[in-house]
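Appendix B, record 7
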Amino acid sequence: MSWSFHGKIQLGGLLLSLLGCICLCVTTILPRWKTLSLELNEMETWTMGLWEVCVDQEEVATVCKAFESFLSLPQELQASRILMVASHGLGLMGLLLSGFGAECFQRVLKRRLCLLGGTLEASAAATTLLPVSWVAYATIQDFWDDSIPEIVPRWEFGDALYLGWASGVFLALGGSFACPPFLTIRPKSSLGISAGPQEEASCLLVNPLIS
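C-alpha cells (predicted):
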C-alpha cells in the first residue's frame, strides 16, 4: 500500500508536532537559558534555567541549586515558567486531537478534530516563542545596559533559547500541516443522496492516510 499525497502531509505534520513537543520538554528542563563566563576564572561557567542555576567547573562536577522561591525570579522567568507549562498542555492536546483526526473516517468529525488540533498546536507554538523571545530580549537589554559597570560579567544566550525557537517553529509547522485545505466536507449528490455508502456517525479507527 502506498501513502497518498494528503496522507503524507498529515503524517509530516504529526511528526513535526511530535518533534516540537520533545524539543519543548528539553527546553523547559534544560538549565541553560542563560550562560555567564567569568573572565577572572575561565574554568568556571554559570548557567541559569527556569528551575535552577548551575555552576560548571572544568575537572569538577557540575553543581546545581534550585530557586528557593518563585517570586525571587526575574519577571521574564516567572512568566516563562507559566507559559512553558501551558505550552506543554496545549501541545500534547493538539498532538492527540490531530492524531485522532488523522485516523478518523467520518469526514466532518475528521475536519473538526484536525482543525482543533492544529489550532492548539499553533497556540503551543505561540506560548513557546513568546517566553523564549522575552528572555532573549531581557538578556540583550541587560547586556547593553550602560548603568552596569563594564567589570561586571554579563549574561548571554544559552543553548535552551535556540532549542526553544526551533521547538516553536516545529509546533507551528505541525499545526499548519495538521489541517490542510483538502479537508473539506464531501459534497452530496443533487438528489440529496450520497454517491457512496453513508459514513458512520462515529470516528472509526480506519486510517485514511493510506490510499
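Remarks on this record: Residues 184-202, 204-211 have pLDDT under 50 and may be disordered. The domain at 10-30+75-178 is CATH 1.20.140.150 (Butyryl-CoA Dehydrogenase, subunit A; domain 3).
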